[in-house]
Design a protein that fits this description.
The two termini are about 20 Å apart. The chain has one domain: Response regulator (Rossmann fold). By secondary structure, the chain is α/β, with parallel strands linked by helices. It is about 50% helix and about 15% strand.
């Protein structure tokens, strides 16, 4: 059985990625997980730390987003499945962009968010093949997709 590549996009303030990784490991799923840089400060500051300071916050953010996109685009293109998590605390505009990019590439998308975000994310959810509310549901979705059994 081949290894599946799953990209875990989105919210960085909870342990949802670890829950999915742990569940997949316990289920013995042949999955390699990829993710963006989840250290918020590193992600925000990579552009100026590597390419030099910016006096304007717009250009600082632009540099950081561009540098992060090298990783994000490459890993999403490599993925078989893209899981996009939208959390409650912050609006993850970058996650919505990742979902759109994955959709444009024809990737299988699973969104992960609480039911209270359903209306705000209706267009993103419409592009997804499954909409989960809990990381454990993502593990079950992956298990079913890989093994074909419930």
């Amino acid at each position: 059985m081949r290894n599946w590549i799953v990209y875990l996009s989105g919210e960085v303030h909870t342990d949802w990625r670890e829950v999915i990784k742990r569940g997949a490991g316990e289920a013995g799923l042949p999955v390699e997980f990829l993710a963006p840089v989840t250290d918020h400060d590193s992600s925000d500051n990579c552009g100026v730390d590597i390419l030099g300071d910016e006096s304007d916050s717009f250009w600082k953010d632009h540099k950081g987003a561009s540098v992060n996109a090298i990783r994000t685009r490459t890993l999403i293109e490599k993925a078989d499945v893209v899981v996009v998590r939208f959390g409650e605390k912050y609006k993850q505009w970058n996650a919505a962009f990742d979902a759109g990019y994955a959709a444009a590439l024809g990737k299988s998308i699973i969104t992960l968010h609480d039911s209270g975000n359903g209306h705000a994310l209706k267009e993103v959810d419409a592009a997804a093949l499954a909409v989960a509310e809990k990381p454990e549901q993502v593990v079950r979705l992956l298990s079913y997709a890989i093994n074909g059994t419930l």
